[in-house]
């Protein structure tokens, strides 16, 4: 596998991007690094959101689909998602990508691609055949990334009710 000039090799759940970042399952100890990285990217403190997401990592009945990119012991990227079976009136098992981020100093080096490639591989191993993602209308950079990863407009309609 090639990632923007980097070579990767699969190690089951883990892909190693040589000379760059280790892609591995997310664990509780990644919390502070993920929150700090998200804050750097978004300019917001979303620690409450991440507390809820990280609680699911501790659930022994839940499938951990979340991955971390680590370089020199620091979180430099992550992807988080959930797997659903029968929720939302969708009969097949599906996944939703809800958060992805790469440290600005490490962008454009194939880390997001490596994260998503391993995420996709892990979902396939779980017999998930469809993944969904919501992207803000004006976030063309993110939309372009997901298009490059194979996402297309869905036959499902996203509806919104402002309260």
3D structure, described in words:
The longest helix has 15 residues, at 111-125. The radius of gyration is 16 Å and the shape is globular. It has four helices and eight strands. A hairpin with a 4-residue loop joins strand 3 (14-17) and strand 4 (22-25). The chain has one domain: 3-Layer(aba) Sandwich (Aminopeptidase). The protein is α+β, with helices and mostly antiparallel strands and 163 residues long. It has helices spanning 31-42, 47-57, 111-125, 140-148; strands spanning 2-3, 6-11, 14-17, 22-25, 67-71, 74-85, 93-102, 130-133. The protein is 29% helix and 29% strand. An eight-stranded mixed beta sheet has the order 1-2-3-4-5-6-7-8.
User: What oligomeric state do these chains adopt?
Assistant: single chain
Number of strands: 8
Gross morphology is globular
Q: Structural class, from helix and strand content?
A: alpha+beta
| Overall domain count | 1
The average pLDDT is 83
Q: Spell out the helices and strands N to C.
A: EEEEHHEEEHEH
**What Rg is obtained from the alpha carbons, in whole angstroms?**
16 Å
In short:
The protein is α+β, with helices and mostly antiparallel strands and 163 residues long.
Descriptors for this entry?
Aminopeptidase, 8-stranded mixed beta sheet, alpha+beta, single chain, 4 helices, 8 strands, disordered N terminus, globular, 163 residues
């Amino acid at each position: 596998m090639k990632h923007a000039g980097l070579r990767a090799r699969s190690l089951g759940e883990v892909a190693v991007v040589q000379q760059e970042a280790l892609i591995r399952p997310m664990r509780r100890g990644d919390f502070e690094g993920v929150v700090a990285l998200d804050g750097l990217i978004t300019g917001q403190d979303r620690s409450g959101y991440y507390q809820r997401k990280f609680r699911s990592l501790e659930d022994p009945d839940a499938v951990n689909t979340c991955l971390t990119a680590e370089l020199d012991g620091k979180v430099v990227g992550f992807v988080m998602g959930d797997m659903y079976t029968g929720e939302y009136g969708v009969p097949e098992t599906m996944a939703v990508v809800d958060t992805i981020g790469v440290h600005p100093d490490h962008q454009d080096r194939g880390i997001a691609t490596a994260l998503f490639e391993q995420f996709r591989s892990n979902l396939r191993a779980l017999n998930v055949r469809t993944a969904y993602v919501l992207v803000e209308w004006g976030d063309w950079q993110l939309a372009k990334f997901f298009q490059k990863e194979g996402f297309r407009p869905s036959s499902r309609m996203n509806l919104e009710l402002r309260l």
